[in-house]
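Checked the freezer inventory, then went back to the computational side. Two predictions to log before the end of the day. The first one is the construct we discussed on Monday; recording sequence and tokens without edits.
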Amino acid sequence: MFRLIVSVWLLLLPLAAQAQDCAPPPDLKDGWRIASPQSQGMDAALLCAIGARFEAWKEANAHSVLVLRNGQLVYERYFTGEDYRWGNPLGSVTHDATKPHDLRSISKSVVSLLVGIAVDRGWISLDQSVFAFFPEHADLRTPAKDAITIRHLLTMSAGLEWNEDLPYSNPRNSETAMNNAPDAARYVLGLPLMSTPGQVYNYSGGSAEVLAAILQKVSGRRIDVLSRDELFAPLGIAGSEWVSWRERPVVASGLRLRPRDLARIGQLVLDKGRWQGQQIVSENWIAESIAPQINGQGVFFYGYQWWLGRSLVEKRETVWAAGYGHGGQRLYILPEQNIVIVVHAGLYASPLQGAVGHIILNRHVLPAVSIR
């Protein structure tokens, strides 16, 4: 009970009481421009208070916090805490800019960018039937299932039975069962249809897995190779890793990147598909991806494998798009404020995982903009 009281007190602690001086991010000669918060119209004390808050609030197990504005890195802080590599314990890790981190389901948002590249290249179109790509699974087809399209996979509205509400350690969890199946795409496509495709949102890691299988068929490359060639290399990202299970990449949740590299993904979306003058994915795709396509969970809308929400700070509404990952992984993109936020944490079994990113967004970053 005492620890719970302390955690709540730290959550509510006034920002002024936590503020401290902090050094600017180091220039690692990795392509990121470094700037002071003040030069980009942000209050430094509010950003610096992030470090003090999470150094004191050990239960939050924050690992990394990066804030970028106008394409420049204005705040970067790393912490020490217990961590995992896709469920396998790593012990206590002192995090820094060189260490890769699980993205978990932010992996799905990366898959969406690869689908956009495939659309741009003319390899696929969104309203193609998914079963058109899997003649080897013709025995699973029904007239109703033939209506499932790539667009439905992107919006998690394929209508197939799926349950990820169970713990991932439970073999009846749909994603766990899919990962353990000999053929992941066949497992997903063989599930019974529970609703008309396109009508009902149901969170499903199987959507990303089938999208990756389609991308492999049209490109001839597995998701780990395709992402390296078509996305990460143009962004200057080296050392990416897709965790493998049963000798295949874990598409829905297995991507690991360094924090500054995840920030490149966010900046790419913020800059409408461009990176350092190169159009990597079309502006139209980015616009569609982070536009509301369907009602998601709770108060969120959902785009193409991106969460869409809004914040109200000092009576000022801000809309944002985000990649969400289990354990507290967050990639926030704030188009109106020209801001990208990266958050990593190790809260894989904690109810706090949904709070840490929102505290950083709503109690530090947005107030730092609104008081300028």
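The second is the one RB wanted added to the comparison set:
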Amino acid sequence: MSSIKKVILGLFLVLFITGCMDETEDETINGNKLPPQSNEIINGYKLPPEPDETLNNSTLLGIDSNNNGVRDDVERKIYFKYKKPVIQAYMMQSAKSYPKYLENPTASAKAQETQDEMWNKSSCSGYLRRIKKIEMPRVEGVEFMENAYMNTKDRIRAYIEFNEASSGGSYSIPLRRDYKEENCDFNVQEMLELGK
């Protein structure tokens, strides 16, 4: 075999192997390229990767790659904004309601499950604030969550629809005797220990 043929064959093999390596590095599911894995860890919690903004904002619910009920970009904002593990956990509990408000606004506004979630969040917040004496993000926390979740016109419209369907309803709020640790959907003591 001549040296020119060997060089051409060698280049062909290099290109072929490189092309194969590129294909195996880009994992896909149903033809959709998976986002890169995140190596970011805050307070022992592994964050999901930052999602592609265009893809994330193309639907009401966006991307939740770790399937924990919170959109990835919102989850990342929570962990970067709030430094205490117990506040991060509480804000994650709060964030889990918003996809339901957006997905089916009118039905969510009328659902007993929505009222139960609101009750539990308020009871958990009251427990952390009054019993454990933790400074909780109150109005600022609600504003943060609404700004994080309602970042497209479609999401804002759905949230307005949810609020309109909720208006005129009668909602009870927990009293001090109702402030209970079990209404937090996370291990409060573990989060407090982690924050020391």
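For RB: The first strand starts at residue 28 and ends at 29. Strands lie at 28-29, 32-33, 41-42, 45-46. Let me know if you want it refolded.
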